[in-house]
Amino acid sequence: MSPIVHVVGPELPKVELSYIDGEPRGYWKFIRQFETYVASRVTDDSQRLLYLIHYCKGKAKTAIEGCVMMEASSGYKRAREILKRFFGQPHVIARETLEDLFSAVNFEYIDGEQLSNLAIKMENCAMVLEQMNYTSDLNSLVTLERIVRLLPQPMQAQWADWVDKLTEDNREPTFDELTQFIASRARVACSRFGRLANRSRKGHNVKTNCHVQSEQGNSSTMKTKCSMCSYDHAIDKCPQFLVLTVQDRWSHAKSKGICFVCLRQGHKVNECKMTRLCKVDSCGRRHHALLHTDSTSNVVNDKPSCPEYRKRVINHTSKIQTLENEIRKPYDVEFSDAYSSDKSLSVDDKVAIKIVEGGTRFGNGHFVVSIPWKKNPDMKVDNYEVANRRLQSLKGMLSKDVSLHIKYIESTESDFTKTYAERVFEIYLQSYYRPRWYLPHRAILNMKKPDLRVVLDCAAQFAGVPRNDMIYQELDTTVELMCILLSFRKEAVAIPADVEEMFMQVNVPESDRGASRFLWWQEGDMSRGPSEFQMTTHAFGATSSPFRANLALNKTAQIFSDDYDSYVVDTVKNNFYVDDCLISIPTCDQAKSFVKHISELLCRGSMQK
Known about the structure:
Helices cover 45% and strands 9% of the residues. By secondary structure, the chain is mainly alpha-helical. It folds into four domains: 4-88, no CATH class; 93-215, no CATH class; 235-291, no CATH class; 384-604, no CATH class. Strands 3-4-11 form a three-stranded mixed β-sheet. A three-stranded antiparallel β-sheet has the order 5-13-12. The protein has a three-stranded antiparallel β-sheet with strand order 10-15-14. The relative contact order is 0.07. This is CCHC-type domain-containing protein. Pfam families: DUF1759. InterPro entries: DNA/RNA_pol_sf, DUF1759.
């Protein structure tokens, strides 16, 4: 704890101020204390700055130490801005607060003390997010379901009854309702009779678990190390496991003898006591949700106790249908959207949409759209050397081809001029700054066009993990191509168009830009050492860039819809396939008017045709 701050006036208990060490969760608590007990009682900005630096630790202190070199008033203001930018971003605080809540250990039985702690954490979480106007995140079904899954099975059933009563009163379950429910269950569990009931229940569970241990070599009450990273947490909470593809999760589970139902070691699927089925897309198969794929096969991690089962074609009709499906496959790949009129969303899709829509705003003539991270992008690993090796390999290639080198410089300088990318400020080069992820890049040449395009390699791996796997996969929100082609033939005058550099018109929040860094030479001079740059817009090669660009396009139509004819607005919503538009108009005069108005509409969202 810090030195004691004395309060002027009547004798009051002494207040000990807490430090800020760079953890976003402690930012608002520290700022409120500092403003109340220091900033409001000191009039000199130079003293305020010295106190501010004194009460900072670790990376927070390192971030603002240089401000002492500035004029007092400017230095203090700058220090406050740095702290807020690095450690006080509302969406980061909200995300970390919720993740801290979700990281609570699953309850094996009703424990009054643990339930009370959970209720207190939920109340604190609600206060923090309400102050930052993030109540929609609190009351989302995703948040409520993740908390309910932490509860023991009997309480989950009680909550279902509680929600049913709310529904009868035409009310929706909320975070506050769930908090009240857990708090009430905690009071009951902590009462004399509640403890009596739980004591007998806990004794029964211990006895049962001991039996399971002797039979299966597995006990749910034993604390086991994660088979992925060897830390003390369940594998379904492991960041390294969560960033794997579904196929790699299956492979890891099979290699480590992990049950596909509960993701625990020591027993087989047919011996697992858990009866839960996968609910992703109404799957209904007996495997964990983290192992769900669109075409999950029935895989077991041991020889089945029943006779071997083989799939055979029992009639000619089945064989013909199988051949027909094989013939159809290549065409389905090319025109997959033509057969997907009913696009059901997975749980991951819904989470990704919520993250992106919640982090979308319009300012300075551009849309700013968040990156849908699967987990908080701490990115504590440093892949600088990997990116530098790729850059040196590129240097060898450019040294042999002067023409290619010139085109590469022209492409990168164009991005800097248009502010699609920027040089990383020195303060952000500190080793503690997160997120930090370096993307290699390469040249893409189109024989039909003279220009060269520099594309970031978001699939490049470091420690076996590419950046693309840290982001929710691209969602297919584009309009079906077949519908666009058919409607294109309706009228007499055809109008094809496209949005110029569509991905580059959508900006990335400042808090996410460090995850799109790349190495390049200042002004393309390869005799210098490499400098660090970062994208300010969404990069080519990222899995979710088309989805985010399409979202910005639709938001443009939505925001400015009142100023334009409905036909123009509907065209933006229904006749764009990514950045290409196809539409037909009855007459030339109508076509001229249409082109003028749709160009104006798109320009207002920085989507230039």
